[in-house]
Amino acid sequence: MTSSEPIYTRIDDELDLLTRLVPLPGARLIEAGCGTARLARSLIARHPGAQVTGLEVDAQALASVAQAQVPGLHLVRAGAQAIPFAAASFDGAMMLKSLHHVPVPFMDTALDELARVVRPEGWLYVSEPVYAGALNELVRLYNDEGAVRAHAQQALDRALARGRWVAAGEHFFESAVQFADADEFERRMMRPSFAEFEVSAAQVAAVREAFARHAGPEGATFTRPMHVRLFRRAAPRAR
């Protein structure tokens, strides 16, 4: 990880960054913690022949994606710590704002499982939100993710130390996140289907008060800083 102050570039579509970093046309990919598979669906539409297998533990999110019936998108209800596929089944793997949602005791296992199912010389793209910024300050009022985000980065460091992954790049970017009003913020951010936290009436009131300080006639726009780490699957050692 870098010790100097990172420089953030503005990216409105993360798929643009992913497209620059790794080969996607015709690739067999796995996304761990795919949620509603927004980026995966765009990836398939943009890159001919690409196929994405999405892993997700949230049944409600999977059901909403399944209704779209996107050719090339395959959905499996499973966690990253127990991937039901054979070794070297995929060319690359993605975790988009999902590693910090893996239970801390399973983070190391999840990264080793992804190494198992990605072919040698394949890649892993991990995108995690940075614990900073105005949006983060609002989220902290009801769900402080400082500890789990730090654990996610530490797990990535340990994955490199174990030797199954090799660091291939590090990138920082920021993108806009818009909310029409406090109701939309509460629906999307405070009451997602995968939420493992309870939100009290007092917390809702505090968030609405804080949100109002950022809002104008057209709602509120926040800048979310992101940290991307790109790994390559280490080649097998010669005997």
Write the layout of secondary structure elements.
Blueprint: E1 9-10, H1 14-21, E2 28-32, H2 38-46, E3 51-56, H3 59-66, E4 73-77, E5 90-96, H4 107-117, E6 118-129, H5 134-140, H6 146-162, E7 165-179, H7 182-190, H8 201-212, E8 220-233
Parallel strand pairs: 1-7, 2-3, 2-5, 3-4, 5-6
Antiparallel strand pairs: 6-8, 7-8
Helix pairs in contact: 4-6, 7-8
The CATH level-2 architecture is identified as 3-Layer(aba) Sandwich
Strand order of the largest sheet: 1-7-8-6-5-2-3-4
How far apart the termini lie comes to 31 Å
Which CATH first-tier class would you pick? Alpha Beta
Number of domains: 1
Structural class of the helices, strands and pairings? Answer: alpha/beta
State the oligomer.
single chain
Question: How is the CATH topology named?
Answer: Rossmann fold
Please provide the ordered H/E string of secondary-structure elements. Answer: EHEHEHEEHEHHEHHE
Could you estimate the helical fraction of the residues in percent?
25-40%
Low-confidence stretches: none
Work out the strand percent.
25-35%
| Count of separate DSSP helical elements | 8
Shape: globular
Can you give keywords for this protein?
239 residues; Rossmann fold; alpha/beta; globular; single chain; eight-stranded mixed β-sheet; 8 strands
Question: How does this model look, in words?
Answer:
The chain has helices at residues 14-21, 38-46, 59-66, 107-117, 134-140, 146-162, 182-190, 201-212, and strands at 9-10, 28-32, 51-56, 73-77, 90-96, 118-129, 165-179, 220-233. It is an alpha/beta fold. It has a single domain (9-233), classed as Vaccinia Virus protein VP39 (Rossmann fold). It has an eight-stranded mixed beta sheet, with helices on both faces. The longest helix has 17 residues, at 146-162. 31% of the residues are buried.
